[in-house]
Specification:
about 290 residues, 8 helices, globular, three-stranded antiparallel β-sheet, 17 strands, about 25% helix, Double-stranded beta-helix
């Protein structure tokens, strides 16, 4: 259930774009306070337009974090990532998504770090993520976001025609299988068997077409031979790396990033060793299965 709203009021928040393609910074709102319907509506509209929103200097409690997330839908946990004690809705994310960074882990974690859309292994991937900085390094640890509608729009016409009808398989084991026990892998496979999603997803609210494959969870394109599937996925995965489709967020104390998971990919830059980076996320549950 969404969080209860205060009566309508005229919001004082401002929305300032921070990138030419996506991203905006929101000010004039205190997320420690309950929000009214008009303010929530303005934030939702800004999210649909800019795809990722940034808030600064929001010294919120975990209760505030959960309340804010619930304005936008039901919240969900995660089958692998650790949650905050007493708050199953809040994921505690360290360097390697739950694995504490060490000197020994660094050469494994850095190559494993990839662009992704969250939890596409679910039949209904999450609607949004809301990430709050808890412990940030003095330098480094930025998060980069990419607009998957802009990426799709710039594909050659023959490539659009090629992929518009295709589906791809997404599997939790691709990302999490190596970091859990064999027993846990078997359980994950039972609970989250591979699912097929369209390579091109139509956004259920904006109607935009988005490229909907990612290198963390997408394993193969259905109906193609393995070598053809691998080559096509490699091409599509590579497009998200172009800076023209990105906005980069430098964290500050008590900053928050709020992204539309249906419209973006993101990448947490692992460049801050030996310092620590701990962030906490609430995840807004998806309400629809991706469709063309």
């Amino acid at each position: 259930m969404s969080a209860a709203l205060l009566p309508l009021e005229r919001p004082t928040l401002s929305v300032i774009p921070v990138g030419p393609v996506l991203g905006a910074e929101i000010s004039g709102v205190d997320l420690r306070e309950a929000l009214g319907a008009e303010a929530v509506g303005a934030i939702r509209a800004a999210l649909l337009k800019h795809k990722v929103l940034f808030f600064r200097d929001q010294d919120i409690s975990r209760e505030d974090h959960v309340r804010f997330g619930r304005y936008f839908g039901e919240l969900e946990g995660h089958p692998v990532t650790t949650h905050a004690e007493g708050f199953p809705e809040i994921l505690v994310i360290e360097a390697a998504d739950g694995m504490k960074l060490t000197k020994e882990l660094l050469p494994i974690a850095r190559p494993a770090n990839k662009w992704h859309t969250d939890v596409t292994f679910r039949e209904k991937p999450s609607l949004a993520g809301i990430l709050r900085a808890r412990n940030i390094p003095p330098i480094g640890g930025d998060t980069i976001f990419a607009d998957t509608a802009a990426i799709y729009a710039d594909l050659p016409d023959d490539m659009k025609s090629r992929i518009i009808t295709l589906n791809a398989e997404h599997d939790i084991i691709k990302s999490y299988g190596y970091r859990v026990s064999e027993e846990k892998r078997e359980q994950l496979h039972r609970d989250y068997p591979p699912v097929a999603h369209p390579i091109v997803r139509r956004h259920p609210e904006t109607g935009e077409n988005h490229l909907f494959v990612n290198s963390v969870f997408t394993t193969r394109i259905l109906g193609l031979e393995r070598n053809e599937s691998d080559a096509l996925l490699a091409y599509l995965f590579d497009r998200v790396k172009a800076p023209e489709y990105q906005v980069r967020f430098r964290w500050s104390p008590n900053a928050i990033a709020f992204w539309d998971n249906r419209a973006t990919q993101h990448y947490g830059v692992l460049d801050y060793w030996p310092f620590e980076r701990i962030v906490e996320r609430v995840t807004v549950r998806g309400t629809d299965r991706p469709s063309k």
